[in-house]
């Protein structure tokens, strides 16, 4: 009896293993001669340029360290909890890039996360979002990529430890966390909402940064858009868990995504800055409106903005109080000397380019990470609002100074509990800041 039971268990294990291997195996797709640029129409290439911009392809496929690299030639270093991963060369170079890939091979990579050679791709390439893309968008993207300058440049090998370096393990990850399939419009919403959802959930892969991940690096589906830590910054919630006192309305979202600054919420900094400036400023306005329309619904903006008028009035009043008479609070004096000249607003609303910190995400998040990042890095004239810069205070403020300013702002600009261990956290964020702008003194 026991022998039969053991034999059954072994047999089931063998069958399960064979079934998994069948699931995991993909054949190579034959190489092709690199297609001539003239084989694609100008209209298709332009549509593909828009698809590439809305997917931020150049952001993750262009090296930024080691002096930078040619656009789309890969070797962009992505730090993950599992080790460093380097992006692929997606120029049409026949040896180092995808010049010998057919359109079918690109479609399989986008939809299923499998390379031309049949190798499972690491989900740092967000195929769990790209799987939602239409055939037309992938075809147009192929036309665009195949007409870019070919760059003969190799990428560095990934730094994943064994057994994570075994690509067959990615098949197991997919079995647990990946559901392939093209986006299906929701008939309960209008065309603008569905266009926004298609872009946000698919090509633009917003959830890849704004959704927390589990211990295996997969997005937590039950916490969609709840916010997450990305590259040493906090990507704030995009849903109604966003804690700012004024609502991210459809117009605020549009202004932010299109121009890099929202009138009430301030500028786009850190990893978010290239999204409006480098990419979404170059695509049709309708698509940006669609994304804003979709997230305003996710955020329940229409129901929440009724409280905005009172929150705005409180913020403006607090901004005025800071500069009334001699202030005995030494933390307030430090804030006045370093920050108030640029962040002061009288009424009835903030001046564009002079963000009111009481309305900014950075003060309302659970941690002071983003506030410290901006203090240390500053914002260049190419980030945030076009032509307006904030200097870095890397050399001007100590960790203790930053902690005092953060504590002061948290207790005077929000209704939330104080942050803890501020000086330690300031030092930790300082360690992540590797490059300081030339104007680092203030």
From TrEMBL:
Binding site for heme c 1: 57, 60-61
Keywords on record: Cell membrane, Heme, Iron, Membrane, Metal-binding, Repeat, Signal, Transmembrane, Transmembrane helix
UniProt xrefs under PROSITE patterns: CYTC
Coarse class of the protein's main subcellular location: membrane
Transmembrane segment boundaries: 5-25
Manner of cofactor binding, per the entry note: Binds 3 heme c groups covalently per subunit.
Protein's UniProt keywords contain Oxidoreductase: no
Stored InterPro entries: Cyt_c-like_dom, Cyt_c-like_dom_sf, Cytochrome_c-type_DH, Membr-bd_ADH_cyt_c
Binding-site positions, heme c 3: 339, 342-343
Domain Cytochrome c intervals: 43-149, 191-299, 326-413
Needed co-factor(s): heme c
Recorded GO CC terms: plasma membrane
GO molecular function per UniProt: electron transfer activity; heme binding; iron ion binding; oxidoreductase activity, acting on CH-OH group of donors
Chain sites annotated for binding heme c 2: 206, 209-210
Protein name per its UniProtKB record: Aldehyde dehydrogenase
Short name of any one Pfam family annotated for the protein: Cytochrome_CBB3
Localization per Swiss-Prot or TrEMBL: Cell membrane
Top-rank taxon: Bacteria
